[in-house]
Design a protein that fits this description.
8-stranded mixed sheet, 5-stranded antiparallel sheet, Rossmann fold, 2 domains, alpha/beta, binds S-adenosylmethionine, 16 strands, globular, 26% strand
């Protein structure tokens, strides 16, 4: 069944589908969802979009240097990458760990896409103590062992629910079909009081949009329950100032497209709410910085060396501030759960 047929079937049965489920089905439908559909390239220059680890190994070097800076006594570590895609980041981090003589006890990739699992097995299966898991609840290590948990553009693929504020209440945004057209509709929500309480530090006005991902809340809760000693770092598209607008993006072949323009081969993502993430990691302390500051701090040699045109392009893509560059719109978030 195509993505569109599945979505239409749900709308036929329930008269509507919420944004979170719409995005999860579009991204992860077993055969034809964006992340599972068979195709030559998904991420990279020849794919639908490009990511920092695909641009340069400098990104992995910065993540590894940050780990060493924050965990100066570490001599052994378990690696856990969340949503590795083609697996470049783990490859780069592994190389850096060897260079710094830090023993890697095991490598685990948390991956939901069958398409990417096949690529990862091809790349890493010869490595000892390598495994792929589909659920964070499958990850178990000794409570005293340090786990380095890292990711890039992982949380922005999680579906979010969207609500609109009106007359002192939140109404949930749903998708429905009228006269064969997909369109957005609002319905009063039983979660309105809970959301008002949880986001009361924000001053919502009529027409403002609130995005909330129960899936992210649940995921970070499971991570905290399952891993006793970790250093967590992630880079993602996101904000610390709440825009109160929809951040849903639909991408196809490197281009932004309109909602419902296509149903197949579309990558949907939301911007990550880094303040919410900070709250989810409490009582642990967290740090948020722009990707630009993160890379300049943890890969300084790359910036101080004389540059070629090619290196200048890489620098600009990773740390620049223009619309198609990742420096300010991407942020690094890190936290650890031990002293
Ligand atoms: C935007 S891609 C980023 C891939 C890679 N980190 C990079 O930077 O090139 C998102 C990745 O996260 C995976 N993913 C998304 N949600 C997931 C979940 N809940 N559990 C496991 N993997 C997930 C996708 O299958 C994909 O590999």
């Amino acid at each position: 069944m195509s993505v569109q047929e599945q979505i239409n079937k749900i709308i036929k049965n329930f008269q509507k589908i919420n944004m979170q489920d719409f995005v999860q089905i579009s991204n992860f439908e077993k055969k034809l969802g964006f992340y599972n559909k068979e195709e030559e390239n998904k991420i990279g220059v020849k794919g639908h979009f490009i990511t920092s680890p695909e641009i340069s190994s400098i990104f992995g070097m910065a993540m590894c240097n940050q780990f060493i800076n924050k965990n100066p006594k570490a001599t052994k570590v378990h690696l856990l990458e969340l949503g590795p895609g083609n697996g470049h980041l783990t490859n780069d981090i592994l190389e850096q760990m060897h260079g710094h003589k830090i023993e890697v006890l095991s490598i685990t990739l948390l991956e939901k896409s069958e398409y990417f699992k096949k690529k990862q097995i091809k790349k890493f299966s010869k490595i000892e103590n390598f495994s792929i898991i589909s659920d964070i609840d499958e990850f178990h290590k000794n409570k005293d062992d340090l786990v380095f948990v890292y990711s890039n553009e992982f949380l922005d693929t999680f579906g979010h629910k969207q609500y609109m504020y009106r007359n002192n209440n939140f109404y949930e945004v749903f998708i429905t079909i009228k006269k064969s057209q997909h369109l957005l509709t609002l319905e009063s929500s039983i979660q309105s009081e809970y959301i008002k309480k949880d986001y009361k530090y924000l001053d919502f006005k009529d027409g403002d949009i609130l995005e909330h991902s129960p899936l992210i809340d649940f995921f970070i809760g499971s991570l905290n329950r399952n891993i006793k000693k970790y250093f967590f770092t992630t880079c993602d598209y996101g904000y610390t100032n709440y825009s109160k607008k929809s951040t849903l993006r639909a991408l196809r072949d490197h281009k932004k497209i309109a909602l419902f323009e296509f149903f197949e081969g579309v990558d949907y993502s939301f911007s990550v709410d880094f303040n919410r993430l900070t709250k989810l990691f409490e009582p642990n302390e967290s740090e948020i910085q722009s990707q630009s500051s993160f890379i300049k701090k943890y890969a300084p040699n790359f910036f101080n060396n004389k540059t070629s045109d090619e290196i200048d392009i890489i620098k600009n893509l990773l740390t620049g501030t223009k619309e198609n560059e990742m420096g300010l719109i991407f942020k690094n978030f890190n936290s650890r759960n031990y002293d």
